[in-house]
């Protein structure tokens, strides 16, 4: 295989993945217009996002397994085709029910692609160049969440909400054509005769879906709490018993799945045996901790610009404000891919952790309240201006550092986890890496969202109480509190976000400790792990 072909394969894999990742964020900015147009309530509309994520997660767990059974190229093209068809159906959806159903269909296609794309790119490169493959496949994936809100906001404003789905059609057609022309042919002697792991597929799908659905309930609104004073209602939060019932039930099912795959399955859907390899286990522990601690920033910062800071930014302007984060991911990808082989995964990861820690510390000092209750009241009474909380200009370089640090960690640990694998083992390990990362990132987003909601409400209540006390009681303070409503929300939100950045800062020390267990540059490389030729059942030889 020529060297140029390796890069073409990686670029085609990335092209297929771009709309999949993009669609997880591009839809969020159009939820309100969709809900209005289709006359749906907030909880129902949230299923447009939730259904897609659940379908992604349930399918990604077996994407690598299906690719090893029926061929990567076939399943990659099938995934693109299903996703593209689902996108078209979403654009023509006549009501909210059909739109949710078509989003699930779309998510199934996307879930097939998520593990196969990285496996295609990694297998095209020799071990010593796999950091480059990780960089090539990582750039569009990491930039998509940043530019998704920009594109979604523009398309919605210019062409209507249907266009955010139709934009996937030309990309999908191009990706299918490129895959047919560039990707290597599937091995005609692939092990398609092995018994399909129905039990493992069902157990992994049910377990992952239950956990992620339980987590999404945390950030759903409880309609029973909506009142005239609080029309938006309260979130279900972590105290909602179905959250823990689903989480616990899913964990039990995944425990049974793990026991079955390790003790009884001859050809497991998810190859948990890879966790016996130290490099694979430690790199995944670092990856899980990183997304758990920091992934919520992709939700938190748009929330800050659109709902906390005054003046509020539009969805399109928010996307533009997030561009520095995207540029940071690009720079971090180049850095990690270039230096991974030279200085080793431990030092690359430690650099990323250090930058992430510093950026969280700086953000905690930059995003902070600018007035207390007395200052707010005095400003309203004297019609004086209240200092604005930090805006896009003040956060530009800090967002760049966030993106740089986060992607540097991700590139290093993903490369370490997968670089020793080839063939079927690589495809299955890729599924395991992505499905577990999806679970931990979802948990991180739910935790940060619920903390923000609780902190902002608590601080807002405290400020209102203090203002009422200062003006002489509820009757005398009613008018002042009404005039202060927007600023109270801004100050309370800034307080909540500042506290979250402090939590991220201290959480980075756990990440730092885990990173110390990663191998350094001088450690002898482990041999490539391949399926055992003699078994015929897809088991793997665990590298030393």
Describe this structure in words.
The protein is mainly α and 544 residues long. The chain contains 19 helices and 2 strands. It has helices spanning 3-26, 31-37, 42-70, 72-91, 96-123, 130-159, 163-166, 168-182, 198-218, 241-263, 278-294, 297-308, 315-321, 323-366, 373-382, 392-418, 423-470, 474-483, 485-515; strands at residues 221-222, 234-235. A two-stranded antiparallel ribbon has the order 1-2. α4 (72-91) packs antiparallel against α8. It is globular and about 80 Å long. Residues 474-481 and 523-544 have low confidence and may be disordered.
List the main descriptive attributes of the protein structure presented here.
544 residues; mainly alpha; two-stranded antiparallel ribbon; 19 helices; 75% helix
Question: How would you summarize what this structure contains?
Answer:
The chain contains 19 helices and 2 strands. It has helices at 3-26, 31-37, 42-70, 72-91, 96-123, 130-159, 163-166, 168-182, 198-218, 241-263, 278-294, 297-308, 315-321, 323-366, 373-382, 392-418, 423-470, 474-483, 485-515, and strands spanning 221-222, 234-235.
